[in-house]
Amino acid sequence: AAKGAGGSTYCFYEPRMSTGAREQVDLLNDLRRALANRELELYYQPKVHAPSGEITGAEALMRWHHPTRGMISPAVFIPIAERFGLINPLGNWVIDEACRQARAWRDEGLRMRVAVNLSVYQLRQADLAERIGEALQRYNINPKLLTCEITESVAMEDAVETMKVFDRLAQVGVHISIDDFGTGYSSLSYLRKLPAEELKIDRSFVQDLGINEDAERVVDAVIKLAQALQLKVVAEGVETEQQYAILRALGCDELQGYLFAKPMSARTLSLWAMNDIGPKDMDFRESLYGD
Ligand code: C2E
Ligand code: MG
Ligand code: MG
Ligand code: MG
């Protein structure tokens, strides 16, 4: 997408507004064309090492620059794509594009882990792991550099089937992250058996840190659980210095949130990583990394 397009904010299609049936049909038709028209782009949000603030990798987040409606949130168009059978073509594009970008960064001298989000429908695709393996080969990427983020609620949904998919992904060699942890209903015995490497604490818990004492105890317990299961633990949605301080003190491994960086274009991310802009350069960051 054009460089200037990144500066716009979500306008008419905030997730909270109910999207009427007519609008959904319009968006669905537009979405069908969006892939071909290069209106979709992956933005990347850094994950940083909690003790040092150094970048460890980035999560790919889909962005849709609609030609007339501006930026449309994935929280709006992904549910539509899922409902109307478009999520697999979109998801396949994400996998390919993230691997292509990882290769481009590698060629620039930037060794960056990349994470992609997977929808429940993608997990039901019989050839998902094979597809991911092919994309990795196409761009000659070490599978360990790719993480698949799967939400806790999806991971726990159909235990037997999900375990098979996880095993196939693990065989390909990619890492698996349990996203939005704390919002689903985990079975601990099942969680223990899952071949995952990472657990991401949902933003709702992070938000309440420093405000609500329960939140701190819950996050402490989740971090200890992750440690007991030998999972790396990441906190999402870190916005304040206070949340950062608490998470660091509790031993959280990695952090993600607006305090460090908003999701940004691939080009901006490579500038960010190359210049090693630290968490203190607030004004500079503000000017560079609008959504
Ligand atoms: P997620 O995977 O849990 O991603 C985190 C969301 O939180 C992102 O929203 C990110 O921009 C936002 N975020 C990060 N840090 C902060 C913060 O400090 N404060 C606040 N308020 N928000 C923060 P985004 O990009 O709008 O994506 C929303 C959701 O849409 C994602 O949640 C994910 O479930 C889904 N999504 C995005 N891209 C894809 C994709 O390529 N495939 C699939 N299947 N789902 C995607
Ligand atoms: Mg995610
Ligand atoms: Mg998440
Ligand atoms: Mg989330």
From TrEMBL:
Superkingdom field: Bacteria
A cellular component annotation (GO) from this entry: membrane
Domain EAL residue range list: 24-277
UniProt entry keywords in alphabetical sequence: Membrane, Transmembrane, Transmembrane helix
Protein name from the UniProt record: Diguanylate cyclase/phosphodiesterase with PAS/PAC sensor(S)
Organism: Piscinibacter sakaiensis
